C-alpha cells in the first residue's frame, strides 16, 4: 500500500486542487484487456508500476465521487485524499478473474472510505456504530429533499413520521439523528461575536474550588487533626480504646464485644464511651480556643 501511495499525484490544501484535477485528467482510461493484464501483474508479482497505472487511471472516479460529499462541509481535498485511500485498498484486493471491472469494485471501497471520513469528522461524539445508524445519517438529507422538507431546526412530528416510514426506521431514531446532524461541534476558541475579543471558553464557569478555598480547607483539616490529637491525650488507655473502637473505626465493635474484652457489662461500656466522648469534646474546644 505504501508503494502504491508513493506513485499517486500529491493533493495539497494550499491551492493545489485545480492543478491536481488537471493532472489526473492526463492519465489514460484503460481498456478492459489492459486493466486485466495490469491487475494480474499486481496480483501475481506485486508489480508496483502496474498498480500505479490501475490507481491513476481511476483517480477521476474518486474526484467525481468525492464531489458528491462536498455538502457535508468538509474540505474537498481531504475528501479526495480519503477516497484515494479507498481506491488503493480496492486495487490491492481486486481479483480480475471475477469478471467485473475495477471501477465497479472500487466504487464500494471509495464510498466506504468517504463515509468513514465524514462520520469521523462530523463530530467528536460518535453518531452511531451500527450500519443502520450510518445509513440513516447519509440518507436523511436525501429523503428530506425528496419529501420537500426544509433543512435546519427540529422536524415537525408529521415529517418525522414520513421520514421514518420512508426509511423503515423508528421515528425516535429519525428525531435523534436530525438533532445530532444539526448540532455540529463548535470550537471553544471561536469568538463570541465578530466585534468582541472574547472566546467561548471565556464564558465557561469553572465549578472547581479556587486556590484560596483549597488552601483554607487544607489548613482547617490540619487544625482539626491537631485539636483531635490534643483532645485524645486527656483519655486514659481504656477510654481511648473504647472511643477508638466505637467512634473512629469504619467497622466499629459492638458494646457486647468490648464488654467481653474488658470483663464489664454492655451498659458499662456505653457509659465509658459517652464519658470519653464528652471529655474529648471539652478538650478539643479548649485546644481550639487556645
Secondary structure topology:
Blueprint (H helix, E strand, L loop, with lengths): L1 H4 L11 H8 L7 H14 L2 H9 L2 H9 L8 H18 L8 H21 L8 H16 L10 H11 L3 H12 L8 E3 L2 E4 L11 H22 L4 H11 L7 H8 L3 H24 L1
Helix pairs in contact: 3-4, 5-6, 5-7, 6-7, 8-10, 9-10, 11-14, 12-14, 13-14
Structure overview:
With 290 residues, this protein is mainly alpha-helical. The protein folds into three domains: 2-122, Up-down Bundle (Four Helix Bundle (Hemerythrin (Met), subunit A)); 131-182, no CATH class; 211-289, Orthogonal Bundle (Arc Repressor Mutant, subunit A). 64% of the residues lie in helices and 2% in strands. The protein has helices spanning 2-5, 17-24, 32-45, 48-56, 59-67, 76-93, 102-122, 131-146, 157-167, 171-182, 211-232, 237-247, 255-262, 266-289, and strands spanning 191-193, 196-199. It has a two-stranded antiparallel sheet. Helix 13 crosses helix 14. The model has no long low-confidence stretch (mean pLDDT 84).
Amino acid at each position: 500500500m505504501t508503494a502504491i501511495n508513493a506513485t499517486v499525484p500529491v493533493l495539497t490544501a494550499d491551492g493545489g486542487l485545480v492543478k491536481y484535477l488537471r493532472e489526473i485528467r492526463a492519465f489514460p482510461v484503460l481498456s478492459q484487456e489492459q486493466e486485466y493484464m495490469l491487475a494480474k501483474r499486481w496480483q501475481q508479482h506485486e508489480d508496483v508500476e502496474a498498480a500505479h497505472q490501475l490507481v491513476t487511471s481511476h483517480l477521476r472516479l474518486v474526484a467525481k465521487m468525492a464531489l458528491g460529499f462536498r455538502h457535508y462541509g468538509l474540505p474537498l481535498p481531504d475528501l479526495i485524499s480519503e477516497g484515494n485511500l479507498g481506491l488503493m485498498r480496492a486495487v490491492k484486493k481486486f481479483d480480475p478473474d471475477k469478471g467485473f471491472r475495477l471501477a465497479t469494485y472500487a466504487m464500494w471501497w471509495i464510498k466506504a472510505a468517504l463515509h468513514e471520513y465524514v462520520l469521523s469528522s462530523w463530530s467528536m461524539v460518535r453518531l452511531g456504530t451500527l450500519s443502520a445508524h450510518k445509513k440513516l445519517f447519509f440518507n436523511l438529507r436525501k429523503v428530506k429533499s425528496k419529501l420537500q422538507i426544509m433543512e435546519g431546526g427540529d422536524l415537525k412530528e408529521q415529517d418525522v413520521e414520513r421520514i421514518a416510514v420512508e426509511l423503515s426506521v423508528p421515528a425516535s431514531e429519525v428525531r435523534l439523528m436530525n438533532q445530532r446532524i444539526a448540532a455540529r461541534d463548535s470550537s471553544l476558541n471561536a469568538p463570541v461575536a465578530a466585534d468582541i475579543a472574547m472566546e467561548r471558553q471565556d464564558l465557561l464557569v469553572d465549578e472547581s474550588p479556587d486556590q484560596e478555598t483549597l488552601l483554607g480547607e487544607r489548613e482547617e483539616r490540619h487544625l482539626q487533626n491537631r485539636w483531635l490529637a490534643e483532645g485524645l491525650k486527656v483519655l486514659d488507655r481504656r477510654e481511648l480504646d473504647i472511643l477508638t473502637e466505637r467512634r473512629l473505626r469504619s467497622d466499629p465493635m459492638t458494646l457486647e464485644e468490648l464488654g467481653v474484652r474488658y470483663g464489664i457489662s454492655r451498659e458499662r461500656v456505653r457509659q465509658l464511651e459517652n464519658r470519653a466522648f464528652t471529655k474529648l469534646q471539652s478538650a478539643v474546644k479548649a485546644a481550639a480556643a487556645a
